[in-house]
Amino acid sequence: MAQEIVDLCKKAAELNYSAQYRKGNVVQLPDEGKAVFTGDLHGHRRNFEKITHFADLDNDPGTFLVFQEILHGGPEDEYGGCLSFELFFNILRYQLQYPGQVYLVMGNHDTAIINDTNVLKGGKEMNEAMKNSMKRYYGDDYGAIMGALREYLLSQPLAVRCSNRIWMSHSLPADRYVEDFNTEVFAKRLGADDLNRQEPAYLLTWGRRHSMEAIEKLSQLFDVDIFILGHQPQENGFSHAHEKLIILASDHNHGCLISFDLGKSYTAGELLGCIVSLASVA
Question: What confidence tens digit (pLDDT) does each residue in 114-137 have?
């Protein structure tokens, strides 16, 4: 089992780096087809099943499906350990099944796993909870599997940019870091040091509560019109936080996804009509 998981992570990481539409650390989708973006998933197995049923990649090779923040959350073992890694490895198998159509973008929980730092969710320190569960599950093979997992997480793109000027990433730099944000991070090959505090990749995954002024500046800096993010909990599954900002969550019973035509221009208001409640998906 251990070697299968290590090989899985390595093959999926290689696919990330060689993906047709990846340019540096940004996936640049074409001007045709359909995008399906999800919010934070955090181990929610049933919602993953609903998302893949909705995307129907078997019958729609022109659909691009983007996940974020899969790890930390969901089912626990008898000791309270986090089992989200089981779903994560299933999603990597799914990614390899549909190369070029399925992408995972880096989130703040990913950066914490890569650099082995604390990260809280619901008042619980999730890194320790997942590591302990993986140690019980994999035994002596834990070190090799965790190393391969971290290498995969480091291979993830930071964002997805659509030809219709829609941008999707886990988050954006907090307001105080916007003015000096270094966009060179989108062109370089990432190393673990790029995910340390105050580094651009770290800032891109941890920012919250953005002002309209910050969104306007980032819109100009990234040359896009609309941002779709995760990271910030959404009780109702989504929010239209600002004129150019939509925030999604897919990790609970009111979770949502958003699906839109890559060849069509949208306002954020129009995109609200493209949001799909996962509860409505059979």
Answer: 999 999 888 889 999 999 999 999
**Fold classified for 2-280:** Purple Acid Phosphatase; chain A, domain 2 (3.60.21)
Q: Are 167 and 25 in contact (CB under 8 A)?
A: no
**The pair of three-digit structure tokens given for residue 230, joined into one six-digit string:** 């995760």
Domain ranges for the chain, please list them: 2-280
Q: pLDDT per residue over 94-111, tens digit each?
A: 999 999 999 999 999 999
Mean pLDDT of 232-249: 95
pLDDT score for 275: 98
Q: Three-state SS across the chain?
A: CHHHHHHHHHHHHHHHHHCCCEECCEEEECCCCEEEEEEECCCCHHHHHHHHHHHCCCCCCCEEEEEECCCCCCCECCCCCECHHHHHHHHHHHHHHCCCCEEEECCHHHHHHHHCCCCEECCEEHHHHHHHHHHHHHHHHHHHHHHHHHHHHHHCCCEEEECCCEEEECCCCCHHHHCCCCHHHHCCCCCHHHHCCCCHHHHHHHCCCCCHHHHHHHHHHHCCCEEEECCCCCCCCEEEEECCEEEEECCCCCCEEEEEECCCCCCHHHHHCCEEEHHHCC
208-223 pLDDT, tens per residue? 999 999 999 999 999 9
